[in-house]
Write a structure and sequence with these properties.
CATH superfamily: Ribonucleotide Reductase, subunit A
Shape: globular
Number of helices: 16
Strand content: under 5%
CATH topology: Ribonucleotide Reductase, subunit A
Structural class: mainly alpha
Largest sheet: none
Distance between the termini: 42 Å
CATH class: Mainly Alpha
Oligomer: single chain
């Protein structure tokens, strides 16, 4: 994406991260776990082309409330919001859409880099196979969010400082499982919840379809993380598992604070401290931020990384109740919603919901994909 779309100066267009790690070759080509190989098959079969599957002819008004309900703008209901006129609110809507989708875009590039690294560093061939399909997924997601920002929002924001810090930690760690834990479980898990907010509450058809399709891919990615790490973590010492749990606590707080949107308030000349104070104290925003962890908490528990420090952090953040959620049910719901969107538009014979091609065989694949990620280790 050209830097002319950025709302703020970009000091550099490239970011270099030192990342010492070992490259692992494995010549046992005929060995593999059935569940991961099944997921690999689904990864190959479910590739899609953003330029033909989505209807890019849809007109998007980035200043409209239909893109994302005003109630989800962090300062909605504050004195600052009440003092704004219609033009100022329209401008804020565009900036919030740009900021949010920009972080999605930057996160997808982080996922691309991390997954390519996993291909290089993970010792098992079946993991290399699946991770290779995810590399293509992440490239497609980058292309999709970049085009949406460029053509529909017509504005972009640089990477959030907290997201950049977390990505730096994940990329620079030489251990494949830490890259997988940080990206597949933590960052992808939070992204799934954020994508779901747009899919479920936006009235803009292209955004709904875009995020629904991305979520189908992301559900496989989280399943891959669960399968590969559930087999690996029982082999670690207690001290090694505790190190992973400390990382989960650190990453959780960092990602929670990522959603303050401080860059937007600064760029628009709003009182930054007042905006942040409102975001921190708003009950509605508190519930929104809690929902962002609806995917992370049950997955972390499923991996067995649910010691006292992790539980205490989730209690402090008010998200511990998500531990009772079945992550497979969440994945199933994501798949079913996207499939229903396809079915409805196939019946109508239109692509008005942002879909421009329909694969009637995808419904049969849903159950197999979910089962691949839910079988006991």
């Amino acid at each position: 994406m050209s830097t002319r779309h950025y709302t703020m100066p970009v000091d550099q267009t490239q970011w270099f991260v030192d990342s010492p790690h070992d490259t692992v070759f494995n010549f046992e080509y005929d060995e593999g776990r059935d569940r991961l190989l099944s997921l690999y098959e689904k990864g190959k079969e479910k590739q899609w082309n953003t330029n033909t599957r989505l209807d890019w002819s849809i007109d998007v008004d980035p200043t409209s409330e239909t893109n994302f309900a005003d109630i989800y703008i962090p300062i909605f209901g504050s004195d600052i919001w009440e003092r704004m006129n219609d033009k100022e609110r329209s401008n804020l809507r565009q900036h919030m859409a740009a900021w949010m989708n920009s972080q999605f875009l930057h996160g997808e590039q982080g996922a691309l880099v991390c997954t390519a690294k996993i291909v290089q560093t993970v010792p098992d061939v079946d993991c290399k196979f699946y991770a290779a399909t995810q590399v293509m997924d992440e490239a497609r997601h980058m292309e999709t969010y970049s085009r949406y920002l460029r053509e529909k929002i017509e504005m972009a924001y640089p990477i959030n400082a907290n997201l950049k810090s977390l990505l730096s930690d994940v990329v620079s760690d030489g251990r494949w499982d830490m890259t997988c834990l940080g990206m597949q479980i933590m960052i992808e898990g939070l992204a799934l919840a954020a994508f779901a907010m747009i899919r479920d509450f936006s009235e803009e058809p292209l955004a709904k379809a875009l995020n629904a399709y991305v979520m189908q891919d992301e559900a496989r990615h989280v399943a891959f993380g669960r399968l590969s790490l559930r087999d690996y973590y029982p082999q670690l010492t207690q001290a090694e598992r505790e190190e992973r749990e400390e990382f989960i606590v650190y990453a959780s707080y960092l990602m929670r604070d990522r959603f303050r949107a401080q860059e937007v308030w600064e760029h628009l000349g709003l009182p930054v401290e007042e905006c942040i104070e409102y975001v921190e104290s708003s009950q509605m925003l508190g519930e929104f931020r809690k929902m962002l962890f609806s995917r992370i908490v049950p997955t972390v528990k499923d991996l067995g990384l649910f010691g006292p420090k992790v539980q205490a952090a989730f209690v402090d953040m008010g998200v511990i109740d998500f531990a009772e959620t079945n992550p497979d049910d969440l994945s199933a719901a994501d798949e079913q919603i996207a499939e229903e969107m396809e079915r409805q538009h196939a019946l109508l014979g239109t692509n008005g919901g942002g879909l421009s091609d329909v694969d009637p065989g995808r419904a049969a694949e849903v159950v197999a994909t979910i089962e691949a990620g839910s079988e006991p280790a």
